[in-house]
Design brief:
Length: about 240
């Protein structure tokens, strides 16, 4: 009987490790997709942007794999308490990462459009904003794998940095469009790119909340968003 129990525990641990590995692979692909999409944007490389769009299906496939494995673990192992919270969190995180992949794909589509328009100055803010968002994804998934609630909370609180980039770029673009009306179309594309990156930061924050709950069974208190773009006034 003891041997059977030991085998069951080992099998369960192996399933959990496999689930964590899938989530880690998804996160790594998301990081690569965001980086590649922004690189295509900055270098005005249409072919590279198209490759990002095509590669999105790899993230979709991993999400389906994670969901199927999570459902199988729940059905076969009947986990309780913390184990169940972790499995449910992994399933939700896979869904969030799939959406992050979609945002990267959308950035790549905008990059293709922008490559066919005259260059605009405010684009220089985008790579720094992307690096901040990618760092959040990397750290929050490390927090998930290591069950590190301190790191999860730190990522949750770092969303402010991505918001600040978005607010800065929004102001720059709005001023730029007012002063250069013939650049409104490419500026609008770039504004959507910035919004996609801001949403990626939000999703990384959501993953931090999930990790915290999975480990502790408690919810983080909602942090108010700092998007003040609705109060923008043109400088004199």
């Amino acid at each position: 009987m003891a041997d059977n129990n030991a085998h069951t525990v080992k099998s369960f641990d192996e399933d959990i490790a496999q689930l964590r590995a899938i989530i880690t692979r998804m996160g790594g692909l998301c990081e690569l997709q965001i980086s590649a999409a922004v690189e295509a944007l900055v270098t005005r490389n249409i072919e590279a942007a198209r490759q990002v769009v095509a590669d999105d299906k790899r993230i979709d496939a991993l999400e389906a794999e994670a969901e199927a494995l999570a459902v199988r673990i729940i059905a076969l192992r009947a986990p309780l308490a913390g184990d169940l919270r972790e499995i449910v969190a992994a399933m939700k995180i896979a869904g969030v990462l799939e959406r992050i992949g979609d945002y990267a794909k959308n950035i790549a589509k905008r990059a293709s459009a922008l490559a066919q328009a005259p260059p605009i100055e405010p684009v220089v803010i985008v790579p720094e904003m992307a690096r901040a968002a990618i760092a959040m994804i990397r750290d929050v998934l490390d927090a998930f794998v290591d069950r590190d609630i301190a790191l999860a909370r730190a990522v949750y609180e770092r969303d402010q940095q991505v918001d600040d980039f978005y607010n800065s770029l929004f102001r720059s673009l709005l001023t730029f469009m007012m002063e250069n009306p013939h650049y409104i179309t490419p500026s609008t594309h770039l504004l959507f790119v910035a919004k996609n990156l801001e949403r990626i930061g939000d999703h990384a924050t959501s993953i931090g909340e999930m990790v915290y709950f999975a480990v502790t069974g408690e919810h983080l208190i909602d942090r108010p968003k700092s998007d003040d773009t609705s109060t923008f006034t043109r400088p004199d």
